[in-house]
Design goal:
- By secondary structure, the protein is an alpha+beta fold.
- It has one domain.
- About 25% of the residues lie in helices and about 25% in strands.
- The chain has three helices and five strands.
- The strands form two sheets. A three-stranded antiparallel sheet has the order 2-3-4.
- A hairpin with a 4-residue loop joins strand 2 and strand 3.
- The radius of gyration is 19 Å and the shape is elongated.
- The N and C termini lie far apart (about 55 Å).
- The N terminus is likely disordered.
- InterPro entries: Alkaline_phosphatase_core_sf (IPR017850).
């Protein structure tokens, strides 16, 4: 079976979105669907991209990803989009807290990250 990838590009073509960056939550990826379309928006402050063009490639036959086959493979697009939306919805919220300058000062002084608060 041929392998395929899903790569989304903002409509204005100014920059590309890495799917791995989206899945690693470097972007806030939200999706909703209606009867006839899926709507995806990506919020990476200060930029918000909406209405992404979906691109699907057979990376075995087309390793340079020159021929977008999304229109010909709508079932695959729908399956991959469902998987992407499920993945994003199932993520665990971040537990990161705001950076503490004292932690960085301690790390620079000691050469390692360690507890710095009593």
């Amino acid at each position: 079976a041929a392998a395929s990838s899903l790569r989304s590009i903002p409509q204005n073509g100014a920059a590309s979105l890495s799917l791995s960056r989206a899945l690693n939550h470097e972007f806030d990826l939200r999706g909703s669907s209606s009867a006839d379309q899926a709507i995806i928006s990506i919020n990476a402050d200060p930029w918000i991209w909406k209405g992404l063009e979906i691109q699907l490639y057979d990376v075995v036959a087309d390793p340079r990803e020159l021929c977008n086959v999304a229109a010909e493979r709508l079932d695959d697009v729908a399956r991959l989009m469902d998987r992407l939306l499920w993945w994003n919805a199932s993520r665990v919220p971040s537990i990161h807290v705001p950076a503490d300058p004292e932690g960085e000062r301690n790390a620079r002084a000691s050469g390692c990250w360690r507890p710095w608060k009593q």
